[in-house]
Amino acid sequence: MKKATTVLALSVALSAFVNQTACVSIPEEGAQPVLGTRVGDWRDEVIYQVLVDRFANGTVNNDFQVRPGALARYQGGDWLGMVEHLDYIESLGVTTLWISPVVKNVETDADVDGYHGYWAQDLTKTNPHFGELADLRQLVAEAHKRKLKVVLDIVTNHMGQAFFYDMNLNGKADIYIGGTGSTSKVERVSEFDPDWDPRGVQAATSLGNAGRAPLIFIQDPSINRVPPQPGILGRLEGYHGFGRILNYDDDQQRLLGDFPGGLKDVNTESPEVREAMVDAYARWVELTDLDGFRIDTVKHVEYEFWEMFAPAVRKRLAALGKKNFLMFGEAFDGNDKLLGSYTQKNRLDSVFYFSQHFQVYRDVYQYANDAEQKGTKQIADLWGERPKNYAAEPQENGVGIPPTKALVNFIDNHDVARFLFFARGNEQEKKASLRNALSLLMTEEGIPCLYYGTEQDFAGGNDPANREVLWDTEFKTTGDTFLHFSKLARIRKSYAALRRGDQSVIFSTTSTKDEPDAGMFAFERTGGDAGNAYALVVANSNGKKEGVTEAGGKAMATSLTAGIVLVDVMDPQKPTFTVGADKTIKVSVPPQSTRILVPQEQVVP
Amino acid sequence: MLIRWSVARLLHRSLFFVAPLVATSLVSFGAVAQAPPAPASAPPPNAPVPTDDSRVTPLEPRGAQGSQVAPAAAKPPPVDDSRVRPVDSAGSQGASTGNSITSPAPSPYLPAPSSGHEGHFEFGSYGRVWAATDLQGRLGRGSNIVAFGPRVVDEGSYAELELRREDTWSEKTKGRVVATLALFPPFFHFNGNSMNAIGVRNLYAQGSYEKINLWAGSRMYRGDDIYLLNWWPLDNQNTVGGGAFGSFDSKAGKTILAVHMGQQRLDNPYQFQQVPVVAPFGFGTVNVTKLDRPRMVETLKITQLFKNGPQARFFADDDQGFKVSLYGEAHQISSGVFQDPLTQRDRDLPSDTGFMIGSQLTYFTGKRDTHAHLFLRHARGIAAYDPLESPTTFTIDRSTAGASDTRIAFSGNIEQGPFAVAWGGYVRFFRDASTDTSTTQKYDEGAVVARPSFFFNDHFGMSIEGSYQQRRLQVIDPNTDGPLTAQVGRFAVMPFFSPSGRGTFKRPQIRLLYALTARDSGAKRLYAAEDIVAQRGVDHYLGIGAEWWFNSSSYP
């Protein structure tokens, strides 16, 4: 008996030693957060745009149907991967993460996956490819611990390809090709994505028109192509049903048409839809303590929606202690006036500054080293339009900054080819122009936004080639562009003038060739919410020659008093420039470079 | 269970040191049960799917047959006086009578026996068949939410047919060849399909020389079970391999040592993959084996039986006794290369190892199957996963390092006069190897069940059963914001007819069964919203069924 007792006791002790009897629990970071306001002034932030599927793979257990190397398919990135690489993000110097949509998507369509997140199927559930709710909470909580903020990408304009138009009334989705190619034109008609029809997509038989085509929800659970959720989004009255946009300049099509690819346009005029959208997306903030929304395709939704949606979200979140919640919209359009319209009263806090993307980062910086390059006067002209096109007053209960001063600046993003892809010149010249563009991005007024991978010199072409996998870089932090950007981030953080100072252009030119001022551009940042802090940014966008801020024999005039010594805080040698007696200054800048000049007494050690 | 029956029964027959406990090896008719067949289309190793024990949980469906396939715990057969064996032969083999054919006459189909040779064939079976309704127009359906829930309702139909050859060449040398076929539902009369799923559960040969027994083949290989949970909580191997066991008398009683080594290579992409390549001659393709990494399993079990004997007296009653077992397993799986069918790219799979240690303490009275078991067990790495299942979640490098499975289980049975009570229960802590914050593959679970029975006479009786089970997953419950906790309670009434006599484990038994199962909102959430069970708080089950066992090699 003694032996038996001893053996048993040993067994119990051994089991107790090795077992893990701690009951399962949700990790603290995965628990319901307490909402709070984490941003004082959004201009102090530097946004880093991340396509979650492409950033880092934290667990292989959600790598369902990944196809490494096929960029139109899932690659395996997830929220846990982001958590594991917050050090990288911090070392880059960005302060806010903009993450791609989190909701459950249609898995795949026409052999392309919904890895980007813009094919929503259920606005109440997480995309399991990226993780579960606890994982998302962990990401936000860990980011907040490091003073990083998190902005969520949302879509209200459309859902994934949820239904088809039964144009031939046979009850199934067809794709047909008709015509002979000789006596008639060969045409392809898809019931998934038919062309715009102002009457609503029509049905037709061999005898002619048969009235409006029925909309039929697709039932294919194998790819999660099932009726959307929640509520009215799972009913046909939740959609417009006019077919695919053909002409973006036609306001009716732009607002009511399906987004190309068969993404079904939501009936955002419906009060029930509007309530559903407010509820669905405010809920994600309540669940995870997010700090802002980047809103997709805003130009495809009527103004009245935004005038309801934005105030309702602000009010609901403010009641829970979440203020200064940033909402900025994306309108893929170079029309500055159109962009500005979404910032008018009761609408959004800001927009993605797409007009600048085209007129500045493309025409001036990307086309440097090329005859197509535009003079920097184009920058001055565009910026000069801001007071007219954008709201000058902050939104009520918004972020407290007028949209004119809070535009989200970007060089490139997931919808356009990367800067380096279309940049002109040899490899060295391209990278020099990219770094120079980054200097402007980090010194101009507004909120800078960096697309992931730019810091690693990614050079992908159009979608999906511009959505490379970041982990292939092994998250190196020693590249020239990475170091350049992180230095800019440190300087921006150190000098309030670069973040909050008012902006005024004091030098621009139409010259782009061999003229002394070719490619030169300068603007002051001072006053406003920066008080007496001052910075003068002088850029040379010319890739071939040194430039100087002098035109017609006259040096650049400043708002400074004579004798002030300015120090270039970007240059390791810290060269100085002194304001002349006539308040002018002549600054020379090497090709494709930018000087950030700060009064000597304001230089931070 | 083994001890429950084997020891209790055989000792009750005064066959003192019969080695029922040789247990691990021979004895488990019921071995069938916990070893469901590998899923026909197992998920790829990277798929975010189920776990080690997709046996029951509705989160983890197992192919077409679902949890109903889970074969049953076969139980020790009733004592059959005619099957009593010589001392020391139990657990190996002996010259059985009963159904046996002794001293067969010369046959044109058999070689003439040599002098002293005796051989015969035996037939044995375990089985159960149920017909049931949910009283709402559908079939009665299982509702367990834990891996090893009560068998009532969930066990479904299942049967084994065993054909066995027994030979004795001398007092020292004996042999046995065992073939056991398992029949999986649905059966012909139910679905009209004459093609039945059949599995080979035993196919091995065993020989003994005095007290040493050697065997090799494909075999269920396990120890005592918890009948009410249809579960072998300590050791339950289903491999192709071989082993040895022997029993040795000592002052303390009897010591039994059993070792085994076996392998498995499940037909799924975690272990096995064939890919087509261009044929070396002519046209077309031939398949080559790309991934081939069987799991190797080695086991060691030491059992000490404490009973009154010629040299020692432990108890006032000679029928009483204790059994203590220590058990260990080692698992290895080699590295390999898997070709991703989506990309045709090769993916390295690392090697994996694991171990399991466990123990068992059993007390038995030797009278009317009265006994009590306590089991403890801890497994790590690949050993945390049932050998007939593949892990489906991994570390970032796709290994199972760090996975663990800890179990504490108990069971027992008491019979007094017209009353009997059987009980069982367990708690289990399973953790997969991943670092995932939220996963269904980290969970705690447990179940308790008790089945009191009253015998109106020697053949008719009534059982009632109450049970409770809970599973707690590391997944957020949106209602509570804590871990998703699912609970199921069940009450069942089971009048029965037992033609072989009175006793919890007398078989055959023909039964009526009514069971009421209640599930909470957490349990409903384990099912797809479209599943009717997700919409029901209460299930009914009204059925008629039978269970039998007799003359299996698993029950010496």
Assembly state here? Answer: heterodimer
Indicate the CATH class of the largest domain in chain A. Answer: Alpha Beta
What is the CATH class name of chain B?
A: Mainly Beta
User: Mind telling me the CATH superfamily name of chain B?
Assistant: Porin, LamB type
In the CATH scheme, what's the topology name of the largest domain in chain A? TIM Barrel
Task: Write a short abstract of this structure.
Chain A is built from 16 helices and 29 strands.
Structural commentary:
- Chain A is α/β, with parallel strands linked by helices.
- In chain A, β9 (175-178) and β10 (187-190) form a beta hairpin.
- Chain A starts with a helix and ends in a 6-residue tail after the last strand.
- Chain B has one domain: Porin, LamB type (Maltoporin, Chain A, Beta Barrel), CATH 2.40.170.
- Helix content of chain B is 4%, strand content 47%.
- Chain B has four helices and 22 strands.
- Chain B has helices spanning 2-12, 23-26, 188-191, 521-524; strands at 118-133, 158-168, 173-184, 197-209, 212-222, 236-250, 253-264, 272-278, 285-292, 295-307, 321-333, 336-339, 346-349, 352-364, 371-381, 404-416, 419-431, 439-455, 460-476, 483-497, 509-519, 538-550.
- The longest helix of chain B is centred in the first third of the chain and has 11 residues, at 2-12.
- The two termini of chain B are 13 Å apart.
- At the A-B interface, α1 and α5 of A face β11, β14, β15, β16 and β18 of B.
Topology summary:
The complex is a heterodimer of chains A (605) and B (556).
Chain A lengths: L1 H17 L28 E4 L1 H4 L23 H6 L1 H7 L3 E4 L3 E3 L2 E2 L2 E2 L6 E7 L6 H13 L3 E7 L7 E3 L9 E4 L8 E4 L11 E4 L2 E5 L2 E3 L33 H6 L14 H18 L3 E5 L6 H16 L7 E4 L6 H6 L8 E2 L2 H13 L10 H8 L1 H4 L18 E3 L8 H4 L4 H15 L5 E5 L28 H15 L1 H5 L1 E6 L12 E7 L7 E7 L6 E2 L1 E2 L2 E4 L7 E4 L7 E3 L5 E2 L2 E2 L3 E7 L6
Parallel strand pairs in A: 1-2, 1-18, 2-7, 7-14, 14-15, 15-16, 17-18
Antiparallel strand pairs in A: 3-6, 4-5, 8-13, 9-10, 11-12, 19-20, 20-21, 21-29, 22-28, 23-24, 24-27, 25-26, 25-29
Helix pairs in contact in A: 7-8, 10-11, 14-15
Chain B lengths: L1 H11 L10 H4 L91 E16 L24 E11 L4 E12 L3 H4 L5 E13 L2 E11 L13 E15 L2 E12 L7 E7 L6 E8 L2 E13 L13 E13 L2 E4 L6 E4 L2 E13 L6 E11 L22 E13 L2 E13 L7 E17 L4 E17 L6 E15 L11 E11 L1 H4 L13 E13 L6
Antiparallel strand pairs in B: 1-2, 1-22, 2-3, 3-4, 4-5, 5-6, 6-7, 7-10, 8-9, 10-11, 11-14, 12-13, 14-15, 15-16, 16-17, 17-18, 18-19, 19-20, 20-21, 21-22
